[in-house]
Structure formats: C-alpha cells, structure tokens
Design a protein that fits this description.
By secondary structure, the protein is α+β, with helices and mostly antiparallel strands. It has five helices and five strands, in the order E-E-E-E-E-H-H-H-H-H. The chain has helices at about 55-70, 80-90, 95-120, 125, 150-159, and strands spanning about 5-15, 20-25, 25-30, 30-40, 45-50. The strands form two sheets. Strands 1-4-5 form a three-stranded antiparallel sheet. The longest helix is centred in the C-terminal third of the chain and has 23 residues, at about 95-120.
C-alpha cells in the first residue's frame, strides 16, 4: 500500500473577544492549525494535524512541496522508513530543523490513523495499551499571565 497523495491545509479562525486570553507574548486573538491528509493506492485516507508554529501557511507549504515529494510512493505501513527518509533528507542534511520536524509530526499522525484503519484498531491498541478513563483538565496556555480577577474569569469561561 503506497502513499499516493499528501496534502496539508492551513486553517485559522478568530477567537471571539470574550474567549481571548493573554499570553506571555501578547493576546491570543486567533487559533491556527494544519490539517494533513494522506491518500493511499488502496483507497484509504488518513487525517492528522501538524502544529502551526505561528506560520501555518509556511509549514503547510513545506509539507505540500518538499515532504510530499520525499514520501510519495513509499509504503504507508512502514512508518520507520518514512521517518528515516525525512530525517536523512531534511533534518540531518539540510538543517531544515523545526519546520521539517513539525511537518513530519503531522505526517506521522496520519500514518498512525491509516494503520488503525487497516487493522481496525484504535491507536491505544496499536501502541500496546487499552482504552481506559483517565482524569483530564481544561487548561489554558495563558494561566498565570493575568491579574487574579482576569485569571478567575478565564477559568469561569473554560468551565
């Protein structure tokens, strides 16, 4: 099963004013992400997400041009070979560093989605675990940068 297409889609949306939070670098007024899609010769399509790294269009373009060309035609089941190829051709060779690693992380996520679809298993089973309930919390990246009344208001909005 070969990779027949790789596409990355940068997305961005405004955060409503009442949900904007203060960060150490300023107010968060929008959220960015990069959706990554891989299609295979067997008709399986997987989806993942790459970090936007404050440059969603640039990271998506790196995936759509350079990284796509490296992985097209490779076996979608062989995640290690794909990692090794991108590492050898981008990370170790051209010093593309963070951008290539971020793009590769999105591709990796998609490959695990494809593997789960092939085997009919959730990711936790593919990684040797089982589905179980774990405690979670709703946290913001801004906690601690505001005055106490503003921080309490942000917590109330998150609940």
């Amino acid at each position: 099963m070969k990779i027949s297409d790789v596409s990355a889609f940068p997305i961005s949306f405004a955060i409503p004013e009442q949900h904007q939070v203060e960060l150490g670098i300023g107010k968060a007024i929008k959220r960015d992400a990069i959706l990554v899609r891989i299609e295979t010769t067997e008709g399986i399509t997987g989806w993942g997400e790459a970090h936007a790294a404050r440059a969603p269009t640039a990271i998506a373009e790196l995936i759509n041009s350079t990284l796509q060309q490296l992985v097209l035609g490779m076996c979608a089941r062989d995640i290690d070979a794909i990692w090794n190829t991108v590492y050898r051709m981008q990370l170790a060779n051209h010093g593309a560093g963070a951008a290539a690693a971020i793009g590769l992380s999105g591709i990796d996520m998609v490959l695990w989605d494809i593997r789960g679809k092939l085997e009919g298993k959730p990711l936790c089973a593919l990684l040797g675990s089982s589905s179980r309930r774990i405690p979670a919390y709703a946290g913001g990246v801004a906690f601690g940068y505001q005055d106490l009344p503003e921080l309490l208001n942000e917590i109330d909005l998150a609940l």
